[in-house]
Each structure stands twice: as structure tokens, then as C-alpha cells.
Amino acid sequence: MDLFSNLALGFATAASPWNLLFCLVGALLGTLVGVLPGIGATATIAMLLPITFQLEPVSSLIMLAGIYYGAQYGGSTTAILINMPGESSSAVTALDGYQMARKGKAGAALAIAALGSFFAGSVSTFLVALFAPPLTSIALQFGAAEYFSLMVVGLVSSIALAHGSIVKALGMVVLGLLLGLVGTDIYSGTPRFTFGIREYSDGLNFVAVAVGIFGIAEILRNLESEKTREVLMAKVGGLMPSREDLKAMVAPMLRGTAIGSALGILPGGGAILASFASYTVEKRISKTPEEFGRGIVAGVAGPESANNAGAQTSFIPMLTLGIPANPVMALMIGAMIIQGIVPGPNVATEQPKLFWGIIASMWIGNLMLVVLNLPLIGLWVKLLTVPYYVLFPIIMAFCSIGVYSVNGNAYDLYAVAFFGLIGYVLAKLRCEPAPLLLGFVLGPLLEENLRRAMIISRGDPSVFVTRPISAILLLLALTVLIVVFLPSVRKKRDEVFVEED
Amino acid sequence: MKSVSIDPANGAAGALFIAIGAVFAFQAFGLELGTTFRMGPGYFPLVLSLILIFLGCIVLVQATQVQGEPIGAFAWRGMLLILPAPIIFGLTVRGLGFVPALFLAALIAAFASTRMRPLMAVVLAIAVSLFSALVFIKGLGLPFRLFGPWLGY
């Protein structure tokens, strides 16, 4: 069968000694940075992205995938041990995980999170392998108009899942799109918005923008209030969950995996929604809903599984369509472009090794996390006790090296400082950075497809609604927009996001 | 008399959107706009910046309606010392070379925390520079000079 021969090719690629090593190094580094309090998966990947550029494309993406899982796992670790989730998706884990840790079950909570993630990861890796190829063949029929509409869907959904004001999130998307247009116009060769600086004529460096907006802004936020963290390290012991705990985690894990896999495919950050949805479901069907928030196993196992399943299936739109479903995928696409791979449906047919190698490495990365990180947990906990003021100068140094090593362009470093400032100010004004990054990546693609579609249709804008697939996609985007503006949904959405604070 | 109160965070966000939109719109007008059939380099950016200005206005209007939480303290010390770090690295990496440039960047960033003591900062900066030189230049083989022409190398 095709599926199995493809998977075999993938595993053969991902399991070569060098790629295994890169996956391992990635997972370890990802965890290392991910456990730094307050730094989530996106910031971690943005910071570590540059070190992968020296590798060949397959290895570099496999290493990135490793970093991703490591960072996520690191985020859950800080959520459980010091109640400081790095990212909104692990905020839900903190609710019950931290309470478990306070009851002296920190080890069990960490093990449950890891096992739940591994199970969810295994199932959803298989789903990605199953669904990616058929979607690819559909995507191959896409023309410029369809691509444009599809990107609109992705951008609109990213708004739906952002926190706070919808209008501000829309503004961030548009701002990102505009920033993405900085550089030379592809049709006429005219430099645009470069303020006469020749070094920006190739556009703003993606890594610089990502490191600035996510990494530096994050550091500045952490510097606002330097308080001593209470690490529950003495109580990490007894890693193995009890038999009861294991029994209690099976059903939430299965439900979480199902919820996460379904929501992850949605463009716009389904993984975040997945952990909230799973938590809500578990609470609703539980016989003891009052135990939630006091350290119940289901409150850790469900959301962690859902989160990981969603993270995995969010690779589907990225691999098949070249459309990022969340900021992490936007980073992946940025990495692919820097490696000279054009993301989109052609990747599967032109670079089967890369395509299936990434899919296989997802599973291997998950396995490595369980096998390696559970025994290493003591080390990560020790790392949490290293004071923050020692860590961030190191991070700043590595960020500078990383960004500079991409092109050897000092102007990229100035851009880092600039976007660090912008990112911090926008965060203070309660504007979400994720939609901006999506817009930044999609900006040039959106414009190119719009212009191409208009040229093909001889200036007739009705092409977007007369071509059926495009019309359906635009209708979908419109529906999403209307739904998020509906008062009842708005209220519900506020509730969901309030819970995490 | 009715006094108009503006939510500081939303008010500033709206104003920022409008300002950035205006800058982009102004620049886009200087480019060839083209027609819907053959869009020039200025067409799409102009549309986007007008949308951004429009959204900024909505945010601004909303800011007068609802009061949110205050913005909170800014990390001034952090901004003053963290943001220059990559700039200093960029300015000196060619002239001074990789190791001294990194030392300076790490040193200045280290002082962003009120808890950092001078001796600790120097030790940390030296350690980071040496470690990075070993890993990135010797190990990964990045093509940067360890010490630059300003130091007579």
C-alpha cells in the first residue's frame, strides 16, 4: 500500500543516524529553552531557528520539529512546576498540573503530560500521513484565485483565535501584511517601503522579525516584574503515576486526541483552542466537576493530549497547502523558504523524502521526549532554579549570533531591536503578535496571487466568486468573521480566554 | 459637561494603527498604482494601509466607549539595555570581531536586570563569548572573524 511505503521512506529518512542526532539535539535544545519560564514554544523556535540553517533541508526541518516538541514539553514543565505557562496552549495544563504538583504529585503530573502527548502524537502522526496526500492532490488544482481565498481564510481564522479585541487582531494582520511587503516589488522591481536602505531591498528578514516580536518582547515583559519564583522541586519524586492515575488518564487522553486532531487542522491556531475545548469537555462529563482546578488527572491528560494532537495535525495545511495554521507553522514555512523549498502542494511530489521524513520525525521526536526527558526531568528542574538575570544575557547573545548568521547582514540586527520594541509596545497595548507574524509570512504570497488572479481574469474581480472552490473558501472566511462578531460567541470567547489568566 | 475618557491601551493602539497606516499610505502614493487589471507596486499596499487606518479609527472609537485595564509599568531599564545589545553587536562585529562584539552585547544586556552585579556580568559575558566562539566558529564553522581589523588583526 502507498501509505506504508511512503511511511517507510519517511522513517528511513528520519532514522538515519545523523537525522536522529539532529532530532535529539533539537528536542533537547527545545526543552532547554522551553523550560525557561514565560518563554513559549514560538519564542523558543524563533530563537533556535538560525542554528538549523547550516544543515541540509531535511535535517534542518527534522531538527526544527524536534525543537518544537521539546519547546512544547518544556512549556508544560514550567506550567506544572511553577504555574508559569509559556504559551496559552499550556495555560490549561497549569490549572490542574500545578495543583497536582502542590499535592506532591509533580512527577506523576509530568509523566501524565508526557505520556498523553506521546499517545496523541502517535495517533495524529498517522492521521497526517493518511490525510496529507489526498489534500495535496486537491491543492494541486488550485489557481491564483483559490490560493488568495485560502489565505484569506487562514488570516481570518487566526483572528478568531486571538485573544481580546477582534478589531485589533484584524489590525495586526493588516500590519503584518504591510510589513511583509517591504522590499522589492516582484513585478516591477521597484523598491517599496525600504526608506532608502539598500540592505532591506530583499525584504525584512523573517528571523529578525520573529525573534524581535516573540523573543525580545518576551524578555522585556519578563523584566517588568522580577520576582522570585517558587519552584516545587523538592516534591518532584516518584515519576511513575499510580495505577489509579493511569486508569484515570485513558479516557480523557482518547477524547483529547480526537478533539485536538479535529481542531488542529483548522487554519488559525486550532491547537490553542483544542486544549481549552478538551478541558471544557472533561469538566462537563466528569462525575466530579468540582475537583477541576484542584489537581485532577483528567485536567492534565485531556488538554495535554489535545494540545499535542492539534500541534501535529496543524502540519497538514502547512505541508499540503503551504499555509501556516499557527505562528509555529509560520516559522516552519519561513525556514523552508530560507532553505530554498517553496512550501505548497508540490513538496509532496517533488521532495517525497523531505515530506515523509518530516512526518516520520514527528513521531520520533515524540518518542525521544518520552524516553529522554522523563529521566532528565531532574536536570530541567535544576535549570528552573537558575536565576533569570543570568539566562537572558545568554539568550540575547545567541539571538544576535543567530540572526546575524542567516545573511551576515548587520541591518537584520537593527531590525531585531526595532521589532523587539514594536512587539513589546504592541503587547503592552494588548495586541496579539501571532496574527501579525501570519500576515507577515503571507503578505507577499497574498499580493502575488491577487495580482496574478486579476491579470488572468483581465481585471474582473468576480473571478473570486465565480470559481467554485474560491467562492466556498471566501464564504467560509465570511462565516468565521460573522460568527466571531456575533454577541453570544463573543461572550463565550471572552470566557474561554479569561480562564487562563 | 460630558467629559470624554479614553482607554489608554486601546486609544494608543488605535492611534498607532492610524499613524503606521498613514506612513504606508503616504509611501504607497509615491509608487505606481496601476489599475485593477494590472496592479502596480503601490496598489495593494495602499488598499491595506487604508484598511489599517479604518481599523485604527474603529479601535479609537471603541476606546472612548469601554474602559479596560491600565497599561501597567513599562520595563524602561530593560528596553534601554536589552534593545541596544543586538545593535551594538551589529555595529562592532565587523570591526572588532566576533568575540569582543559578543562580549559587549552580552555585557550591556546583563545590566538590564537590577539584580545583576558588575563582577557577575563581566564573568558571564566572558563565558558567553568564549562558549559561543567555540560552538559557533570552531564547532559549526560560521565564517566570522574572531578578532577584527580595529584591534589590528
UniProtKB/TrEMBL annotation, chain A:
Tagged with keyword Membrane: yes
Pfam families tied to this protein: TctA
Domain DUF112: 20-438
Keywords: Membrane, Transmembrane, Transmembrane helix
Membrane spanning stretches: 35-53, 108-132, 138-162, 169-188, 203-220, 257-279, 323-342, 354-380, 386-404, 411-427, 469-489
InterPro entries: DUF112_TM
PANTHER family documented for this protein: TRICARBOXYLIC TRANSPORT PROTEIN
Protein name: Tripartite tricarboxylate transporter permease
UniProtKB/TrEMBL annotation, chain B:
Membrane-crossing segments per the record: 12-31, 43-61, 95-112, 119-137
Listed InterPro entries: DUF1468
Alphabetic keyword roster: Membrane, Transmembrane, Transmembrane helix
Residues covered by the DUF1468 domain: 12-144
A Pfam family: TctB
Transmembrane helix in keyword set: yes
Entry keyword Membrane: yes
The protein's name in its UniProt record: Tripartite tricarboxylate transporter TctB family protein
Organism: Tianweitania aestuarii
